[in-house]
Amino acid sequence: MTEVAAIAVPRGQGLGSDARLRRRYAAERRFRLYGMGAIALAVLMLGVLLVSIVSKGYSAFVQTEIALDINFDPAVVDPDGKRDPEALANADYGKLVKTAVQSRFPDVGSREEKRKLNELISGGAQFQLRRMVAADPSLIGTTQRVWFTADDNFDMLNKGYMLRSGDEASRQLSDKQIAWFDALAADGRVRKAFNTTFFTAGDSREPEQAGVWGAVVGTILTMLVTLSMTLPVGVATAIYLEEFAPRNRWTDLIEVNINNLAAVPSIVYGLLGLAVFLGFFGLPRSAPLVGGMVLALIVLPTIIIAGRSALKAVPPSIREAALGVGASPLQVVFHHVLPLATPGILTGTIIGMAHALGESAPLLMIGMVAFIVDIPHGVTDPATVLPVQIFLWADSAERAFVERTSAAIMVLLAVLMAMNALAVILRRRFERRW
Prior knowledge:
It contains 19 helices and three strands. It has two domains: 64-195, no CATH class; 213-430, Orthogonal Bundle (MetI-like fold), CATH 1.10.3720.10. The model is unreliable at 1-7 (pLDDT under 50). α14 crosses α16 (329-357) and α16 (329-357) runs antiparallel to α19 (400-430). The protein has a three-stranded antiparallel sheet with strand order 2-1-3. The protein has 434 residues and is mostly helical. The chain is elongated, with a radius of gyration of 32 Å.
């Protein structure tokens, strides 16, 4: 009994160990709380950003329309009565719109008031009538009620973004213009409809006629060029460096440079494209071909690094088993290792493409900031992309472009989230855990 007491813990030492243990557990709890707080703050900031974007951009998906009774006067549309397509295309449809507007307000007499009255309707109304007559020439000689897109100022008024009160000189619209619009609304000739123009048209100086389809097509063409160049080159480089390249100072130098290229600012690649692709090779400016080549330089290091990581994740036993049954090194890679590494390679590729999709600085350097109205049909046609289109609209002064900028950001975010979701689905669907 005496010997046991002799080796007992000295007085106070047990209490000190308990105190240190409690402090350690308290520190761990605080660390977890800090981490949870950081995540909560990040989610809060992301939520604030998304709410701000959506609150400013959702209204761009609807557009104010005004109904007019259009008299397709044969003397204006087809004076010769021959239904010649060229004559129908060159008719003065703007006169039909002005006549219909002024017939609703016959008391408007002065030239200045008539000019302001005609501003009710968007300038694209005449092209709408031209398309209607081209599709159905039997409209000539009839009177039809047609819904036209309202001018952007009246659209903002109808959506509540423009004040009705206050000094008339401080507003975009005069009191008479507001009164004319209210009269049409009281007569049931004003409505809000889904803004199909936003998804089917290219860029325009007029906000109510501007759309993202041209930028979407340019983005698709640019991404196709980027993918066609980076995927085969990136995968081939990853396979060589990971499976066949000898371990020496040269391969070490290549690996270091690849890792460094992944951290180079994207605008540097834009300067490279400007100097080499445009200046030296003379490729077309503001084309998806050049944009895709510049973005390929940005994405290539990411795909190489992701590909090497995916190949390295395949267990060595797979290679050893294949070699043991007589497969050549090339067969080992392409018949066994590469199929197992494909999910990781695809995931890295999609993430790299999503990164390229959000780039704007290098594309500004090669001229894709140009004002492009027509929808591109090939990789050599002038085009722009969604990030650059957002940049252009954000720099516009009209209030209507504010909501279209936010709406275009929503479209871009939807595409990015879809690409990242695809990467997650592919990884979960095909990934194998060893």
